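User: Can you model how iron/sulfur cluster sits in this protein?
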Amino acid sequence: MSVVGESICPYCGVGCRLRIEGSAEHVSRVRGVETAPANRGLLCAKGAQLGPTLWTADRLTRPQLRLSRCDPFRATDWDTALRFIAEIVVNLRNTYGPEALAFYGSGQLDTPTVYTVAKLFKGCLGCNNTDSNSRLCMAAAVAGYRSSLGSDGPPCCYDDIDLADLVLIIGSNLAEAHPVLFDRLRASKRRRPEQQVVVIDPRRTPTAEAADLYLPVAPGGDIALLNALGRQLLRIGAVDWAFVAAHTRGFDEYRHFLLSQEPEELLAVAGLSASAVSQLAERISRAGTFLSLYCMGLNQSTVGMWKNNSLINLHLLTGQIGKPGAGPFSLTGQPNAMGGREAGLLAHQLPGYRLVDHADDRREVEGYWGRPGSISPRPGLTAVEMFRALEKGQLKAIWIAGTNPAVSLPDLHHVRRALQRAALVVVQDAYHPTETTQLADVILPAAPWGEKEWISTNSERMIGWSPQLFPALGEALPDWQILARFAQTLGLRGFDWGSVDEVWDEFIGLTRGRLCDMSGATSTRLRAVTNLQWPCPSPDHPGTPRLYLDRRFPTPDGRAVFLPRNHQEPRELPDHEFPFVLTTGRLYAHWHTLTRTAKADKLVRRSPGPFVEINPLDAARLGLADGDLVQLSSRRGTIRLPARVRPGVSPGMVFVPFHWGDLFAEGNAANYLTISAIGRVAKQPELKFCAVSLEKVAAAAGGSAGGGTGDLTDLLGAIRSRFQAALASPGGTGQPLCQT
Ligand code: SF4
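Assistant: Here's the modeled complex, given as structure tokens:
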């Protein structure tokens, strides 16, 4: 079988390098590349099943436009579509100002694309309203690193998994969300059985099943647990005094804060015993190297940044950072969530980890772009704020690329209302329909994975390049080209790049001298070596696996900061009306909102539909058995799902995977229930905690497990078609409606 080439997996943030076998029209096999530093020949089922996601019947091949939301879409050419958008954008900007516009992207866009967005919107249109679905996953980690260590940027690398004596996994279902890292951890554990794996999670996930020690923390109890742990580490003398004295600030306040906490109260909030916390503290104190891996479970909270600070405090306390096998390692959920952070897609950032509200940062970027005074000093609207502003009418137009917010954002009834109120919705995607393209005015065909060159950064700061393997279908274009063509349609200079290399080489100039210095990772070099880890400040620099080995942090005095953080309640607590906690998450077989994984039969067979996981004690109280239809309601919506009775989910809590949207069953997605409350600094929504009620749906009132409003839709559809026939042939609809 011929090899088409190598590529980077477009799903999770592990960044596996794949070898694609087959032909230009058919992928026969996908394998992991043995020499790839991220995956060492491994891959998971999602990567292996990429073939069926190409050349599908729902691929967009031409721009689509409609002049009214009641009209069907009509295919058009690129010039017409871009001119239509440009005229509306210019008019809206002239009438309402630049802040009437927004761009909502994702961690599935490559770095040249997000750089183009930052330059176009922030540098040229004067609008900082660019954000990303990374706001839903990673914003708390960004804010946590920045406040505790002085800058964003995970300090660790994947090889630290092999070198850690103790791996603490908190708020991460590694086995399903980052399967190849989980496989690497299991292989490491097989080689070194003495290596300790500890999992902290309210759900007994497949990751927890593999742990030496599992702590089922109460939902929302993470900060209390981390403070109880800090207190215990202090008590048993596990402090690295030399590190604390030489490289940190704020220890005395932190120590007083910990000692002022009531241990019983901390344990009660964490829902754990003193002995469980002691056991973990003992193991950490004995470990020569201690690595923590974390993800959405810590981040998706209104106090996600505080949870990150509380975890980093423990690494500072024990001196477990800035050495191989140690450190707080935030894992990204998407292939290029890191690139969005580096290139300034997030609403508060500019390229090179700069901030829009820092005058010097703005000046540097404006100077580089030759546009003095062009960047607004006000941070833009973040993901959830954008949709609130759309609903209020403050925001008029939104350009959405590489994501499906009509499934993935919290409080979907509100999201749909917001999009319906917008004057202009542009969606850039490879497929149509998605739940979001259905609400658009213009749909632009983007070339998907394999049909474009790709540059991204994975969770361990590894920049990866991969070539175009297949010709783009129809008129589909790489995302960066669509945006650059739009900028040129507006008459803007500085977007006439001839290749993705030119965009990349321009971008890395803005990283020179910054923590995320990629100036040595030129396009020519990346093409030759395919992988380089930043910082990589010169063309002969080999790349940097770990940050802070010199124990100097990017703060004004070079010291990391202890930040004492109190437990805070989640924004919406269970009560007599909504007595259960709903938490949402991912499954192994699927990725985000199914736009791709639902096209692979093998993945669909493995996880064919959504469900609600419920503890046997709660199920018994509600008279529920496996497979029974359950109605879940929150203050925002109601959905129906089949029950899965499982002891791994704590009593009082239920779990629903968030992947399935309206295309699967109308009005039945998990996010119709979730709350759009966001954190004060990170602005990350609380997707892991809201209050719901549960009812068993009586068989007579039942309907399909797909539930929602689908049954009613079918019923009304049948009535409408009868009337359509009656209108076509006058004479009434037949029988009287009521027989008396
Ligand atoms: S989904 Fe993640 S773990 Fe699986 S192959 Fe892709 S990058 Fe690797």
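A couple of observations from the model: The chain has three domains: 64-133+335-458+474-514, 139-330, 580-715. The first strand starts at residue 3 and ends at 8.
User: Helpful, thanks.
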